[in-house]
From TrEMBL:
Recorded GO CC terms: cytoplasm; gas vesicle
Biological source species: Salimicrobium jeotgali
A Pfam family matched in the record: AAA_5
Domain annotation AAA+ ATPase: ranges: 23-187
Upper lineage: Bacteria, Bacillati, Bacillota, Bacilli, Bacillales
Annotated protein name in UniProt: Gas vesicle protein GvpN
Amino acid sequence: MTTRRKEDYQESLIKRSLRYLNTGFPVHFTGPPGVGKTTSALQLAKKRNRPVIFMSGHEDLSTNDLIGSFSGYKRNKLDDNYIHTVRKVEENVEESWKKGRLYEAVEQGHTVIYDEFTRTSPAVNNLFLPVLEERILPLFGTKRTASYIDVHPKFAMIFTSNPLEYSGVHPSQDALRDRMITMRFQLMEEERKHQVLASETSLKDKDISMILSIVSRAEEKKNEQGGSVRLPLMIAKVADRYQMKVSGDNPNFREVCYDILWHHEDDMSDEEFEELFSK
Ligand SMILES: Nc1ncnc2c1ncn2[C@@H]1O[C@H](COP(=O)(O)OP(=O)(O)OP(=O)(O)O)[C@@H](O)[C@H]1O
């Protein structure tokens, strides 16, 4: 495949996803870490020209965080002494309610990115079932008079997740998955990584190729699955920012590679690290 066609692939994925969102279906980007799911979700959300809310899934996320919660009392006191012989004091105490992030988004038709949603417990994520299917947000357990609010017609959701084999992930409920259109992201190929590094830095093509080759050799030595653009992008950004010569002869550049690629004793021996720079 040529570089141009791969660029189209990314654009096409966003274009297709935008169609689904605009028709009222949530989309779900899933795939290994560092392949551009969150970045694509943000690009997609911006295309809708609606306010964007970003939420991250985590173990402690609760329905209160999403719907809202009772946050204490609000006291209003009116002391009317307009006619000095007459004094009227009126006092009102009411419960104050803080809207959750999902409540506001649903009410005002925002675009929600729910990043790494499978890190949240399935019991909490069940709240999204009626939001996505019946287009209502139930307000259970909130002491509100209404039992639900309607979902704004412009409300849209983009989910992202890492598949099950990555740690800290709950198996996502089938019922929820059934309501989303899932787009699978593959490991990033070298050509695609090259494009990302070229778009994010002003490094020359040959320098980018060298960085990519160093990182892929390191991944091989560490028996790691390649395909994430994170590490090469870090190296490229530092080299670009400090105008470093991208070469094994440059001690500054080698240090950057060492800091970014060598994590612990078992990663690589000193000799193996040297081999990363061999021609
Ligand atoms: N198309 C792109 N253009 C510019 N930068 C990108 C692009 N895709 C990814 N990146 C950069 O690569 C890094 C990883 O991307 P991102 O966080 O989107 O991956 P991810 O698949 O969501 O990873 P994770 O599952 O670990 O959250 C980020 O620093 C991001 O800015």
